[in-house]
Amino acid sequence: MKASLLTVVAGSVLLGACAEKPPEPPRPVPVSLPQKIGDYWYLDQNWTDAERQWYYSTTQGSQIMPYDWFMALPDSSLTTPLEQSYFHQDLTRYGYLAASKSGWSDGVLPVGFIKDTDPKDGATWIGLTCAACHTGDWRVGDKTMRIDGSATTGDLYGLISGISDAVKYTLGNTAAFDVFSRRVLGPYATDAQRVDLHGKLATFHKEFATFVADSTPASPWGPMRTDAFQMIFNRVGAIDLKIPSNSVHPNAPVSFPYLWDASKQPKAQWNGAVPNGDRLTALARNAGEVLGVFGKAALKAPPSKDQYYYNSTVRAKNLIWMEELVRELRSPVWPDSIAGKVDIVKASAGESVYKDNCESCHKVLPRDMTFTDTPIQMIPLFNWADKRPETVVDVFTKTICDPAKGIPAAVKAGYISVAYESDPTMAVDAACRFLKTGPIEGVVMPPIIGTALKKDDLAVNVLANAVTGSLIGTVIHDRTVASLLLDTSWTGAKDVRTPTPWDDPPVWKTETGAASASVPQPSVLVKDTRAFTRPVKGKPVDEAAQALLRRLKERTSPSSEQASAAAATNLTTEPTQAVKDAEAKATKALAELIQSILAYKARPLDGVWATAPYMHNGSVPNLYEMLLPASQRSATFRLGTHSFEPIKVGVDQSADDNTFTFDTAKPGNHNTGHEFGASLTDEQRWQLLEYLKTL
């Protein structure tokens, strides 16, 4: 009887399931369905296609090598005949995303690769845009979704080493150089012109091959990752400063962070090392990124107070527009029609699991609200037994940063205890790296109010000096940059107010390439309400900003009070109280900087489904494994595919086009830590996973 009753109940449930359409996943606000444009499906992320294509195609000042050289470079690794061999013809082999033909692109170069024309001399370069690293493809069945602001599958080290190999091959192979020179110079070039081209290419190769060699990691990064800090420090310290000994082999690759919500966070980078609280620091953050992807800065002691800045290739105005456009970007909503429907029952149960286990660090951003600031939580890697500034600095410099001692010695001595088990290599490297400052030793950036660089200084300080000097240079050369930063009524790329004479908004194009008559409107306007810079007590923000700019324009020398203090310091054998106070203040600031960098950032998880692999270093292939104890996560897994696995939510391990094996035993690759799901039942994990799809 009981069995019969169960049969009837089960049959009724099945009939009801057939008769009624399953409920849709919760959608707090209306979301447009995926839209197919060309070969790709785009999700509703609050960008028009014109805005998206502008993001893909706008230069930021990246200059890898002369554009005509890059387009002419043959490649011995390809199977095509030499005359038909072009290095650029299949950059998807390095994981970069194929471009679709449109009014913005001829489809030859991948997304994020552009021709950069230097406004100073008209020279053309091949460069990278933000989109090269921050646009991702995910394929489910025969549909490929292009996710704006997500991580690329590109292999940056593979790309630069491939360029270096192709140049070396061209220089050493007579037939290859003949093909190259005909493409660059034409068929009627003289021998003298060919010899000159060979010499210039050889000079480039010597410098670029040295950079690649110095950037070669102990173990390969693979796709979707780069050691961002060490690569930037190598570029600035070894190439821009021209001090080869400043280079180190990068050993702490991190995933390319996803961009939605990032521009509204108070700190940038996985370790929160870069402030991002106002318009000026946001511009500085982006300028530092440019210097890391082949932007150039002439770092030398300013010749006089009349040129207190550095010349660079940084395109500040484009970066300001880009920042505003990225502020409009929203996270992608799980695409039911492509990846399968969310289990609404499990997702509902998973919401309470999230509140109990995740929300204290990863805040929820409801989609029916517009945010101008994104909440984050910095998770310290270590607990300090003694937090006095002088002790923190001493332990940091003499133990943690000592290669012969390091973190194990600091723990054993009782100076620190481990608070967060995630691989600390990236954070420690960023905090410990020092650079010889060479030609800019003693230089103060910004002038007057900045701090002079020491002979050997923290790499983050040297980078800040380089970025600040480069940005002052852009203000000096183009005063409209300052106007854009100071105009608090300006809302960015979506601004439709009456233009003023200094306005130079981006040209939005249609799919046919014609200039649009009007700026496209967003579905949600995210106005940048941040100030130009943090206010000075007792002074309005604009007044403080204007005063700073006047000082820069006037190239004012240090005040008489500062000069007198410096003279007094040099004449006395016993430091004055003022000097002691200044040293204590500097030590306290350094201790605070050290502790802030030795942490990892927890951010809201909206759109997290589209950002595999997980952890700051990409060491976990899917969201399901993120909820397991570290001992049960994959010790090795495969990367490189665009194929998406919607059940466990992450990289499809069964895909044939995975090209790289990720080994979590390698330094910098450890998948330990973040075990907040370890105590859950397996049913709770699957419930939580369904809920994460709805964020």
Q: How would you sum up this structure, described in words?
A:
The chain has 695 residues and is α+β, with helices and mostly antiparallel strands. The chain has 22 helices and 21 strands. Strand 6 and strand 7 form a beta hairpin. Helix 8 crosses helix 16. The protein is globular. The two termini are 45 Å apart. This is Cytochrome c domain-containing protein. InterPro entries: Cyt_c-like_dom, Cyt_c-like_dom_sf, CytoC_perox, Cytochrome_c_Peroxidase/MauG. Keywords: Heme, Iron, Metal-binding.
Brief digest:
The chain is an alpha+beta fold and 695 residues long. Helices cover 38% and strands 10% of the residues.
Q: DSSP helix count?
A: 22
User: Given the helix and strand composition, which structural class is it?
Assistant: alpha+beta
Q: How far apart are the termini? A: 45 Å
Q: Give the strand order of the largest sheet, numbering strands 1, 2, ... along the chain.
A: 3-5-4
In terms of per-residue confidence, which ranges show pLDDT below 50 for 5 or more consecutive residues?
1-22, 490-525, 551-572
Radius of gyration: 27 Å
Total E-strand runs: 21
The description of the largest β-sheet is: 3 strands, antiparallel
Helix content, binned percent? 25-40%
Mean pLDDT: 83
**DSSP strand (E) fraction?**
5-15%
